[in-house]
């Protein structure tokens, strides 16, 4: 088992990539802290992990809320005494042409996708500094590096997460903390289904269009990203620092 005994917090793990990663990490021996806004979905993830013989607890917290996040981190420290891995996965979609985006909608995407990485990191890092070890995985996207239609607000956040990752890595390397970014391509989750429904009259046609933008003939599955997260969470990646880690079927180069 590649994560035996590691205490791992995954934000937004009530669905999609976060849930799939939580399940894989549970199978690899981690003590998984499932976080989400949605209690029902978070509890479901915990059940799935426990049914497979793994160890998990759910803690509800809004990743943008300092009070809720600091209470979550204190609860984890009280229960387990340490946090080995933080996966800043929670995020929301933002769709629309820039001139049509309402300022409130813009602020919401920026808030969840950037502040939602800042706040959990802010409260977890002091514990990793004390431990003199830790791995942080920040969820960016291949959209940080390519243009995609009607995604201006979302792309801005994922570019920011990539820049933030590199800065964090430089600042905390001396504490033996590694900080890397995942850049998935199109991964079929509720998040993408929502984007396709809102953006296209014919989502099936849009899926074919997305496939043409990549080298792989298939769109990604949450498990594909989970396997990359497993590498970054485990000690196998001890020489990987501040890296943009693509899991995109070749979309950047396609
Ligand atoms: P998803 O919608 O299936 O899951 C996201 C989860 O985050 C949900 O359970 C939601 O309740 C939770 N969440 C949202 N706001 C939160 C908050 N404020 N506090 C706590 N939890 C919150 O989405 P997904 O496709 O699994 O995406 C996960 C991450 O991967 C996101 O950051 C997304 O931007 C990123 N990503 C997804 C794709 C893709 O194609 N699916 C591609 C690149 C990057």
Notable characteristics:
alpha/beta, 7-stranded parallel beta sheet, single chain, Rossmann fold, binds nicotinamide-adenine-dinucleotide, 7 strands, 8 helices, 254 residues
Account of the protein in words:
This protein is an alpha/beta fold. The chain has a single domain (7-247), classed as 3-Layer(aba) Sandwich (Rossmann fold), CATH 3.40.50.720. It contains 8 helices and 7 strands, in the order E-H-E-H-E-H-E-H-E-H-E-H-H-H-E. It has helices spanning 16-27, 39-51, 66-80, 103-131, 152-172, 190-199, 203-212, 222-233; strands at 7-10, 31-36, 55-60, 85-88, 134-139, 177-184, 244-247. The longest helix is centred in the middle third of the chain and has 29 residues, at 103-131. The relative contact order is 0.15. The structure holds nicotinamide-adenine-dinucleotide.
């Amino acid at each position: 088992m590649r994560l035996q005994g590691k205490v791992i917090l995954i934000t937004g793990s009530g669905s999609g990539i976060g849930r799939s990663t939580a399940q894989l990490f549970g199978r690899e021996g981690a003590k998984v802290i499932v976080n989400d806004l949605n209690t029902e979905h978070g509890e479901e993830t915990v059940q799935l992990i426990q049914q497979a013989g793994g160890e998990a607890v759910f803690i509800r917290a809004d990743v943008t809320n300092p009070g809720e996040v600091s209470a979550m981190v204190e609860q984890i420290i009280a229960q387990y005494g340490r946090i080995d891995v933080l996966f800043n996965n929670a995020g929301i979609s933002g769709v629309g042409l820039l001139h049509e985006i309402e300022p409130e909608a813009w602020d919401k995407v920026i808030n969840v996708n950037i502040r939602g990485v800042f706040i959990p990191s802010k409260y977890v890092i002091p514990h990793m500094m004390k431990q003199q070890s830790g791995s942080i995985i920040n969820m960016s996207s291949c959209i940080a590096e390519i243009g995609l239609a009607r995604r201006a607000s979302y792309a801005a956040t994922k570019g920011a997460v990539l820049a933030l990752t590199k800065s964090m890595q430089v600042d905390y390397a001396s504490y033996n903390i590694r900080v890397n970014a995942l850049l998935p391509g199109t991964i079929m989750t509720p998040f993408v289904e929502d984007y396709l429904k809102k953006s296209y009259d014919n989502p099936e046609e849009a899926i074919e269009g997305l496939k043409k933008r990549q080298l792989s003939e298939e769109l990604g599955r949450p498990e594909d990203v989970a396997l990359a997260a497993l590498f970054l969470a485990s000690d196998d990646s001890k020489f990987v620092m501040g890296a943009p880690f693509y899991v995109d079927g070749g979309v950047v180069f396609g």
